[in-house]
Design a protein that fits this description.
The chain is an all-alpha fold. About 70% of the residues lie in helices and about 0% in strands. The radius of gyration is 23 Å and the shape is globular.
């Protein structure tokens, strides 16, 4: 073998083995998705605080963030990418599929149960029952008539006519559906994955066009055919492209996709049933797929360096997502209380959201965002990390012969 060929082969082998398990590009996108949702809900609580104060001032951020829910679409695409990546070397065996499901459930459920439990405790103190009997999505009496079923379905992250006991759980219902379907897919040889994903996408599209989907997945049929599944599938295809070494000018793809995503933030108007079914997939899901592909490709090519703080926020993103609503609710109530206590003093307007000037708005945003992130960091260190260690040990004991198969396969060198 010539020296040039030996050098090329050595370089190829090195690049295959050097692609990191923990993708900093993906972690940075997790951070971005969590921050989008955090600012979106901070603005919603700002408007709610203004209403409670009887004021009508415009929100501090009144541009683009109207559609900050798009962070959820980015999360779904990332999930698809990660599932393809971490199962790169799986063998098509039932125990492997069970090990995969155990790993995903252990990642999702403990923190979900923690925050759902906090919400249930709040409802119990407020209403005398561990649920909100007056909250539903047009299915009026479901919670009141089926309280036990409502709580069970909420904790199990299964579809139901009402939103889960902790509202953010609706996205996790979709996540667990993705994981269940993907666990079935990996029972088949890896070479069939592109074809299976294509069939899945066609089935979802056909079912949605036939009217089987709904803005809110009220049962398993409407969940299975919800177009949001297309975002997960798109993320899977992005993962397959990156792992295969196919790089199609990632910087250009990133620029165009980011422009479309930002245009969606600007153009998307009032939330409608179409927005929640197809609009978000078109405006945010499709560009998110391209963004994930482009950034992961740039990292694989060694052309991307992500700041450490973005990676850290990516690590905390699940905790940020689940804790921020509770933090925002507490801060809004504290502002109302302080405004009443300080009435007649120069500082009252600081805590009266909607008062003349922007001091109250800036202070509200600073506290909401910073305390949500700080709380998430504490939750990650004190709860999430220990639970991950415990469940990882349990998985190694339960699935001793299949644990290693959940590691990703090497990513191939670029194919131009």
């Amino acid at each position: 073998m010539s020296g040039w060929r030996a050098h090329r082969l050595a370089s190829y082998v090195y690049r295959e083995q050097s692609f990191p398990l923990k993708l900093t590009s993906i972690q940075s996108l997790r951070a971005l998705a969590a921050l989008l949702v955090l600012v979106y809900h901070t603005r919603a609580h700002e408007i709610l605080a203004m209403d409670q104060n009887g004021l009508t001032e415009l929100p501090l951020i009144n541009f683009m963030i109207d559609n900050g829910y798009s962070g959820v679409d980015l999360f779904f695409v990332i999930s698809g990418f990660i599932m393809v990546y971490v199962t790169g070397q799986v063998l098509p065996r039932p125990m492997t599929s069970l090990a995969f499901l155990f790993a995903r459930a252990a990642r999702i459920y403990p923190l979900w149960w923690f925050f759902a439990g906090l919400m249930m405790a709040y409802f119990y103190v407020t209403y005398g029952v561990p649920l909100d009997p007056g909250r539903s999505l047009g299915q009026g009496d479901f919670i009141r008539e089926n309280p036990v079923q409502h709580l069970f379905l909420s904790l199990a992250l299964l579809p139901q006519p009402a939103i889960p006991v902790y509202g953010l759980g609706w996205t996790l219902v979709h996540e667990m559906h993705f994981y269940l379907v993907f666990a079935l897919i990996i029972l088949l040889p890896r070479r069939f994955l592109p074809a299976i994903l294509t069939v899945w996408a066609i089935g979802v599209f056909a079912g949605a066009m036939a009217g089987l989907a709904a803005p809110h997945a009220i049962d398993y049929v409407s969940l299975a055919f919800h177009p949001l599944s297309l975002e997960f599938i798109g993320g899977c295809f992005a993962g397959l492209l990156v792992m295969s070494g196919r790089r199609f000018n990632p910087p250009l793809v990133l620029g165009l996709a980011a422009a479309v995503f930002i245009a969606g933030l600007i153009i998307q108007g009032e939330v409608t049933p179409f927005t929640m079914v197809w609009g978000r997939v078109l405006w945010f899901g499709l560009p998110a797929i391209a963004i994930v592909y482009a950034l992961a490709s740039m990292e694989a090519n060694g052309r991307l360096k992500v700041p450490g703080w973005m990676v850290t926020l990516g690590d905390w993103s699940y905790a940020i997502y689940l804790c921020h609503i509770l933090v925002l609710s507490v801060i809004r109530r504290v502002f109302l209380m302080l405004a009443a206590q300080l009435e007649g003093t120069p500082y009252a307007d600081w805590f009266t959201v909607g008062a003349p000037g922007i001091m109250d708005n800036i202070l509200f945003y600073l506290l909401c965002i910073s305390l949500s992130i700080l709380t998430a960091g504490l939750v990650f260190r004190l709860f999430e990390t220990p639970v991950i260690k415990l469940t990882s040990k349990a998985r190694r004991r339960l699935f001793r012969d299949t644990n290693a198969q959940l590691k990703p396969a090497p990513v191939k060198a670029a194919i131009w």
